Automatic annotation (TrEMBL):
One of its GO terms (molecular function) is 6-phosphogluconolactonase activity. The lineage of its organism: Eukaryota, Fungi, Dikarya, Ascomycota, Pezizomycotina. Keywords: Signal. PANTHER family: 6-PHOSPHOGLUCONOLACTONASE, 6-PHOSPHOGLUCONOLACTONASE-RELATED. This is 3-carboxymuconate cyclase. It comes from Colletotrichum spaethianum.
Length: 130
């Protein structure tokens, strides 16, 4: 997930027109890790782009299936499908400006949470699809 959210149509021209633009990306896989990547696009047509790993957390293991970023409140939520266990989980993390994740909580759910969305007044709700 991208830390800086741009409209899809306007994203690429914005990055290509700037001398250097850095974006934090949060990615997960069934390896169990959430990794923060720093994507820096620079040069004409982003020919000198770099992508590097800057942080990793196993706080959503074993089967992270969805990441939901709450950029306003500097939070990242992760659903774990529980493919290898009898239960799933929802984990929450703070997101630092440097991309480092600090785990706040981990709560068990029934097996299979596959996505989540923030909703409600001031984004205080989290709906999870099973």
């Amino acid at each position: 997930m991208m830390r800086d959210l741009f409209a899809p149509a306007g994203f690429l021209p914005l990055l290509l027109s700037s001398p250097a633009a850095a974006t934090l990306l949060y990615v997960s896989s069934y390896s169990g890790a959430i990794t923060t990547l720093n994507l820096t696009l620079s040069g004409n047509n982003a020919t000198q782009s770099t992508l590097r790993s800057i942080s990793s957390s196993n706080g959503c293991a074993p089967s992270p299936s969805w990441l939901q970023l709450d950029q306003v409140n500097s939070r990242l939520y992760c659903t774990d499908e529980g493919l290898t266990t009898n239960v799933g989980t929802i984990s929450s993390f703070t997101t630092g400006p440097d991309g480092v994740l600090q785990q706040l909580a981990k709560t068990e759910t029934i097996s299979g949470p596959v996505s989540a969305v923030i909703y409600g007044d001031k984004g205080r709700g989290l709906a999870v699809a099973q």
